[in-house]
Amino acid sequence: MNTLTVVTLLYCFLYTVLVQSAPVSLPSNLLPTFSEAAEQVKMLVEKLLEDIPTLHAASINTEGLTLDSSSHTANLQIMVTSLGIPASPVLKPLSERFTLDMCVSRMLVGSHLYQRLLGVLSDKLSGLKDLSADLRDLVTHLTKMKEAAQLSTDPSDQNQTLDLASRLPGDYEVQVAAHVTLTQLRSFCHDLIRSLRSIATYRLAAASTR
After folding, report:
1. Among 135, 109, 111, residue whose Cα is nearest residue 55
2. What is the pLDDT of residues 142-160, one digit of tens each?
3. What is the pTM of this model?
């Protein structure tokens, strides 16, 4: 193997390593508006995480329905399916395959989903209107993040079918729907916090390489 071939192979190897280890590419012109909106999102999510256990305890009085995930039985899962409550959008750490655009879009779609669910349930159970209002504010600030970073909108994530109101014939169904919604929302809030940390980490990493 001649010297030129060795040098060429070494260059290709080093280039591959550098590309794989480089931080995720983020918009270089993110305005303070993005950071301010992200901070507001963080504060609202932390408030939601504080309020959910109290609201669950005050609103859910059906035996066996607790925030402890071990209480979720097969019968309850069947009820969830029959009520048509969607799962939260999946959030992942930022990467070349899971971009800032995808991350913020899913954060927004999930927050809008729970705003709509709680909008229905707040007409059936007292004490949920404030939580619904907090989610409305969360959607507003996530939208500001998306606009500040000039991120695109995925039309496939819009207008998710939701027909909860017609599937709540009695108090038991309302209790189950509220329990599942609050449980899923709490889990989604933890995912939001992790995503915000991921965004902040990659922004710092990207800035340090410039």
Report:
1. 135
2. 999 999 888 876 544 555 6
3. 0.81
